[in-house]
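Let's do one together. I've listed all components of the complex below, 289 residues spread over two lines.
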Amino acid sequence: MYEAIAFYLFSALTIGLFLITVMSKNVLYAMTSLAAGMVLISGFFFILGADFLGVVQLIVYVGAVMALYSFAMMFFDATRDIKEKNTPAALVFLLGGLSALVLVLIFAGPIHSDAIQALYPMHEGVGNAQDVGIVLFTKYLVPFEVAAVMLLVAMIAGIILAGKKMDQSLTKDTSVDDADEILKQKDAK
Amino acid sequence: MIGLTDYLIVSAILFSIGLMGVLRRRNLLMLFFATEVMLNAVNVAFAAISHYYNDLTGQMFAFFIIAIAASEVAVGLGILIVLYKKHGSLDLDDLASMRG
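Okay, and this is what the predicted structure of the assembly comes out as:
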């Protein structure tokens, strides 16, 4: 009963919030609704018994990725509304719906769900975190290490790309020259 | 009772919202948001299948998707900052320099 209520509540809210993300003209609104939608997605994971995945979703997505986005937004002008030359909405709806349908048909067509067997079954009476840990550090050890190296590479790439010419101003307006002049005047004093 | 089908329907709706965003958006930052929506939709589907087939593989794949999404954001935002320094805009129509 409560599971059904939570499911319908979370699904309605996430669909609404992600629609705002996709439709909004304001970057700040889009990012905030994306963060809220990700919190509710972690609610789905908790309903489904994937506790560890839900916590990881909260920490990595809502904590790290959204913080990264909000820091990056400081480089761009976030208060201004985005002007986009949009293609007609009806065409986009039709194309998006059709391609989603085609994807579903492609992946759902040949699968006989009765033939699916659990490769790494969950154990009764064992917590989700322990179960995940055992499978992750035995069967998926090599992908785990590769993912760690990939995250390191991505971190270095991010630092180098964003840190290049950090002393230059991004917004090319006249206030930069004013600031330079003010600094020169201060030096003269 | 909530079954696997309900979760898959929600996931498909979220995925098509993200796909619609990718098709509709012209701003690169908003395009990134739309891809995040798609990745989250797939994660919900993985977790639901993992729950209903009593198998941990789905959750494993969701973990790796989260790791890949995190590194994609780190590299992608660096590239966006470099692009913004060079062009002063993140609009795809402005950035298209090769017109055939």
